[in-house]
Amino acid sequence: xxxxxxxxxxxxxxxxxxxxxxxxxxxxxxxxxxxxxxxxxxxxxxxxxxxxxxxxxxxxxxxxxxxxxxxxxxxxxxxxxxxxxxxxxxxxxxxxxxxxxxxxxxxxxxxxxxxxxxxxxxxxxxxxxxxxxxxxxxxxxxxxxxxxxxxxxxxxxxxxxxxxxxxxxxxxxxxxxxxxxxxxxxxxxxxxxxxxxxxxxxxxxxxxxxxxxxxxxxxxxxxxxxxxxxxxxxxxxxxxxxxxxxxxxxxxxxxxxxxxxxxxxxxxxxxxxxxxxxxxxxxxxxxxxxxxxxxxxxxxxxxxxxxxxxxxxxxxxxxxxxxxxxxxxxxxxxxxxxxxxxxxxxxx
Length: 348
Hints:
This protein has 13 helices and ten strands.
């Protein structure tokens, strides 16, 4: 999940009593976790936890899997099978270019292996998809510098703030101290939501009402350096790539963060709603061109996601996918695994 350059021993998350007050508008604290809830979100999953996560991933990809897995029930490998696969991949939002590349490789592998049945074709397709997605599977580097500064970007409703909360919990379990910055300064609800996650995870949130988002980011990075925080995560307001003035604001935040600390931000993570299909690829292009992305968090794979857009991402802009979300609980944000994803895609 993480690759540490200054290895830290795992430590439990600090309690709220040990932290200074959250610098944000007061919010109603969420109820403390019960023992059962704490056990459910413990770092050591119960037996079958991994298989349970895989089952949720497979369930989330059923919209795609139903279109693909149902094609291999026959007993002949013919042109009709390839045409049906082409249609299913395009309908799954893999895109025309990625679909053609995958099918070209599949035809070659079928000939080279002497495959005789559609079931053997499915295994070859699984291998091709896993190889295509493998470059997207990389650990998130922590500790090259202190703090490691992350910017979270994306459109409205993609799940940025929720992903920040879940990512913070994972970092805490790895023994990292985290500081959050509420960069959406104009929406009180956004600040309150991040403050609530801060209280839930017992971390401090730097926030201002109606201030300059870049100034909040600068203050947070400066505070993180002064306090010796391991990670500073800067939330930003959701914006459409077509809102040019807001994209310029994002560029400004990045420039100001770099002034607060040389080399920062060290990670710029795009949060993508996986149900957006090919529109997710357009978002990826726009945000990458604007601020230079280093990674992706893919959310909402537990819903009506098609999932094939990952193939398009791998072909056009192979930016690492650090995490995928398959549910609402803290443990439903999991490291991206190319092999597991390829299996789930064809087994759903």
